[in-house]
Amino acid sequence: VKKPSIAFVTGNKKKLEEVKRILSEGDGELPFEITSRKVDLPELQGDPVDIAVEKCKLAASEADGPVLVEDTSLCFNALNGLPGPYIKWFLDKTGHDGLNDMLVGFDDKSAYAETVVAFSAGPGKEVS
After folding, report:
1. Residue 75 placed within a domain
2. For a Cys-Cys bond, which of 47, 73, 103, 118 suits 114, CB 3.0-4.6 Å?
3. What pLDDT score does 114 carry?
């Protein structure tokens, strides 16, 4: 019996391996196959959850089937959570040194990563 397949939308092989490892915790078996699918999605703006939901809708339409997407933010406490979901744009514009320079005047240089995952069973289906 062939297992249903879900496309994890990424071009990053390491992310696919990580997702498989996370989802298969426990007995190590998944009731579905998870494959990598590279879909060129736009860089969206907004709240991290809204971004993940919209990316999932776009990816489901493009893949014409079930998809899993993730969106990761890097949030510096000193910058009130910035750059958040805009980390790629920040790094493109400022580079690592520029981002570090923004934190020079702050004692608190701590940060956290936030990953939002969204699933859709296919085009026009609800995103969860």
Report:
1. yes
2. 73
3. 96
